[in-house]
Design brief:
The protein has two domains: 216 residues, Alpha-Beta Complex (Spore Coat Polysaccharide Biosynthesis Protein SpsA, Chain A), CATH 3.90.550.10; 99 residues, Hexapeptide repeat proteins (UDP N-Acetylglucosamine Acyltransferase, domain 1). The strands form seven sheets. A seven-stranded mixed sheet has the order 5-4-1-6-11-8-12, sandwiched between helices. β2 and β3 form a beta hairpin. By secondary structure, it is α/β, with parallel strands linked by helices. The model has no long low-confidence stretch (mean pLDDT 94). The longest helix is centred in the N-terminal third of the chain and has 11 residues. The structure holds guanosine-5'-triphosphate. The site of guanosine-5'-triphosphate has 20 residues, from α3.
C-alpha cells in the first residue's frame, strides 16, 4: 500500500480586504492588518509566522480603496516570503477573494484572516492536517458563545457549525480560528464573484465530508476589536511590558502591566499611560491620563485630559485640555475637541 504524503505548502493568501469597521477610526487611514502591534505592522507578525512554516510566497487580497497604503508598505517591507497584491474592484468576501486568484495558486495553499496570529507554530497545524478539500485550524476556548463553533466527528471531519450558541449550550469548545488549508479543486465548481467561506463553501464541503478540522494547541490572538487589540499587545509584549520606540520622548509615567509608545510620540511630565497604545507622533500632554485606550497617529491629548476604557482617538485628532472620555468613545480623525468641551462618563 502506498501512503501519499501531501507536498509541502509554499503559498499563503492573506485576506486583508475587509473594512475593519470595529477598529474605526484607526482603519479610516490604515488597513487593519497594517496597524502596528508592538511597533511592527501586524502583517509582519503574520508573514514571519508563515515564513517559519515554510511559506515563501504570500498573496495579499486587498480592496481597491486601500491599494495605495499596501503599495507603500510593500515598497519597504522587510525581507522574507515574497509579497504580492491581488486587488479587488469590489469586495468579494472571503472565498470570493481566493477564487479571484485561483489561477495563481498551487494545488494546496494556506488562507489566513488578516487579523489573527497564533501562539503555536503554523507548521504544527500543517503537519497534522489530513487530506481534504479544506482543513480548518480550530482553537479551544473556554466560552465559545461569541464564535462560530465547529463540531467534528470521530474521523476529524466537520459534522456541523453552530454560530454563536447561547452561553452554556455550545455542543463543542472548538471554534474557527481563521486559518485554513485549501485545495484548489474545492473551489473550482463555485461561480466567480462574492462568496463566503463560512456561510457557503464550508457548509457545502462539510455536507460532502470534504472538510476537516485540526485543533491547534495554544490559541490565537486577534486584533479585530479594540479590546482584542489591547489584549494582544499584553500577550505579545509579555517580555518587554513597557515598550517605546527609540525616538519616543517619555517623561511621564507608564503604569499597569504593559504599554506601547510609538516613534516620535511624547508623554509629558505627570502624564500617565496605562495598558494603552500611543501611536507614532502622538502627544500626551502634562497631567493627562490614558488608560486601556488607543491614541492615533499625531493625535494630542491635552493637559489634564482623561481618556479611559477602550477609547480610540483618531489620527490628528485633538482632545482638548480637561476633557474626559470614557467607555468606548471614538473620536474621528482630525476632530478638535475644545478645552473642557466634553465630559463623558459611564453611568454609576
Ligand atoms: P469588521 O468590519 O470590523 O468586521 O472587520 P473586517 O472587515 O476585517 O471583517 P472580518 O473581521 O469579519 O473579516 C475577516 C477577514 O476577512 C479580515 O482579515 C478581512 O480583511 C477579510 N475580508 C472580509 N471581507 C473581505 C473581502 O471582501 N475581501 C477580502 N480580500 N478580504 C475580506
Amino acid at each position: 500500500m502506498t501512503i501519499e504524503t501531501p507536498s509541502p505548502i509554499r503559498q499563503a493568501l492573506v485576506l486583508v480586504g475587509g473594512r475593519g469597521t470595529r477598529m474605526w477610526p484607526l482603519t479610516a487611514s490604515t488597513p487593519k492588518s497594517l496597524l502596528p502591534l508592538a511597533g511592527r505592522p501586524f502583517l509582519e507578525h503574520q508573514v514571519s509566522q508563515l515564513g517559519d512554516a515554510g511559506v515563501d510566497e504570500v498573496v495579499l487580497a486587498v480592496g481597491v480603496d486601500q491599494v495605495a497604503a499596501w503599495e507603500a508598505y510593500l515598497a519597504s517591507a522587510p525581507s522574507g516570503p515574497r509579497l504580492s497584491l491581488a486587488v479587488e474592484d469590489r469586495p468579494l468576501d472571503t472565498a470570493g477573494a481566493v477564487m479571484a486568484v485561483l489561477d495563481r495558486m498551487d494545488d494546496r495553499f494556506l488562507v489566513l484572516n488578516g487579523d489573527v496570529i497564533f501562539t503555536t507554530a503554523i507548521a504544527r497545524f500543517v503537519a497534522a492536517a489530513p487530506s481534504a478539500g479544506a482543513v480548518l485550524a480550530l482553537a479551544q476556548v473556554p466560552d465559545p458563545s461569541a464564535y462560530g463553533v465547529v463540531v467534528l466527528d470521530d474521523d476529524g471531519r466537520v459534522e456541523r457549525f453552530v454560530e454563536k450558541p447561547a452561553p452554556g449550550t455550545a455542543p463543542a469548545d472548538t471554534v474557527n480560528a481563521g486559518l485554513y488549508i485549501v485545495e484548489r479543486r474545492a473551489l473550482e465548481d463555485f461561480e466567480p464573484g462574492p462568496l463566503s467561506f463560512e456561510r457557503r463553501v464550508f457548509p457545502e464541503l462539510a455536507a460532502r465530508k470534504d472538510l476537516a478540522g485540526v485543533v491547534v494547541d495554544g490559541g490565537w490572538l486577534d486584533i479585530g476589536t479594540p479590546h482584542l487589540y489591547l489584549d494582544t499587545h499584553e500577550r505579545v509584549q509579555a517580555d518587554t511590558p513597557h515598550l517605546a520606540a527609540d525616538d519616543a520622548h517619555v517623561v511621564g509615567r507608564r503604569s499597569g502591566s504593559w504599554s506601547y509608545v510609538g516613534a516620535g510620540a511624547s508623554i509629558e511630565a505627570e502624564a500617565e499611560v496605562r495598558e494603552s497604545v500611543v501611536l507614532a507622533g502622538a502627544t500626551i500632554a502634562q497631567g493627562a491620563v490614558v488608560r486601556r485606550s488607543i491614541v492615533g497617529r499625531n493625535a494630542v491629548i491635552g493637559a489634564g485630559a482623561r481618556v479611559i476604557d477602550h477609547v480610540i482617538v483618531g489620527e490628528d485628532a485633538v482632545v482638548g485640555a480637561g476633557c474626559e472620555l470614557h467607555a468606548g468613545i471614538r473620536v474621528a480623525p482630525g476632530i478638535e475637541l475644545g478645552e473642557r468641551s466634553i465630559t463623558v462618563r459611564p453611568p454609576r
